[in-house]
Amino acid sequence: MHLVTSAARILDVYDLQEGDRIVTFLTPDYGKKRGVARGSRRKHSRFAGQLQLLAKVRITWFEREGSDLARISAAELLDSPAAVMNDLEGLLLAGYLAEHLTEFAQENEASERLCRLLEATLGALAGGLDRNLVTRYFEVWVLRLAGIFPPPVECPQCGVELQGEAALPEGGDALLCLRCSEGEKQLLIAGPVLGFLQASARASVREIARRPPAHAALSVIEDLCRRLRRRFLGKELKSYRVMRRSLAIAGGEIHS
After folding, report:
1. Which residues pair with 245 in a beta bridge?
2. Which of 143, 142, 169 is nearest to 156 (CA)?
3. Would you list the domain boundaries of the chain?
4. Element holding 6 (H helix, E strand)
5. Residues 70-90: tens digit of each pLDDT
6. CATH says 88-250 is which class?
7. How far apart are alpha carbons 39 and 17 in whole angstroms?
8. Which residue among 37, 172, 220, 230 is least packed, with the fewest CB closer than 10 Å?
9. Is the CATH code 3.20.20.450 the one for domain 2-79?
């Protein structure tokens, strides 16, 4: 058994048994981890107020060889995501961001780039940037870091440079030129969408926010990411379904 301390973001918390919770958290150096926080459900627990979704904490845990669960001994709150989770849409979006990382981050593998992406995303949201734009940027980069986002540069079939328009064939995982995708059922990737995908590879979300794409283009980016994500995972994220249904019931605009 050895003791480890690291900064982390909380990705998931659920009840284990009377008084205890299982916590999933993401660290830069150790990747995704899962541990038991003993007594965290009790009224006077030392974990009280520390294990919030997406909260940044300094967390200490014990690892035992051969065990799937660590034992969390301490968690100190460093940063609260309260500014992001200040309404229904913000609460739902927090769950959506967290589930992405729960699905795509690897256990026991360094996740520095995913951690930096999450920090930049939360900072942009707290700074008042458009949630729709920030979420689309986050989705694209999670898929890119997972190695499953198709490069929006050239057609993999004929090698022609993608300019102006491209297409994602139904059930496909590569962006093709219109000639190679002709005759197939497809999602059309028009110029503004392609421009966003190319720009996001080299620019921060704050830089892109200076000249953001139109809402229609962001909707296509959402659909593109949804198709690629479902094809890779073989399922839809539960938080995505809940978010769309909840916001539709509430009569709000769906941004994610």
Report:
1. none
2. 169
3. 2-79, 88-250
4. strand 2-17
5. 999 999 999 999 888 989 999
6. mainly alpha
7. 10
8. 230
9. no
Q: Could you read off the pLDDT of 175-227 as tens digits, one per residue? A: 999 999 987 789 999 999 999 999 999 999 999 999 999 999 999 999 999 99
DSSP string, 140-183: HHHHHHTT-SPPSSB-TTT--B--S-EEEETT--S-B-TTTTTT
Range with lowest mean pLDDT among 19-23, 38-42, 56-60, 171-175: 38-42
Whether the CB-CB separation of 189 and 169 falls below 8 Å is answered with no
User: Which amino acid makes up residue 123?
Assistant: G
For the chain, counts of helices (H) and of strands (E): 7, 7
**Mean pLDDT over residues 98-127, rounded?**
96
Torsion region of 50: left, alpha or beta (phi above 0 gives left; psi -120 to 50 gives alpha): alpha
Say how far apart CA 102 and CA 33 lie, in whole Å.
10
Shared fold status for 2-79 and 88-250: no
Residue linked to tokens 């107020």:
49
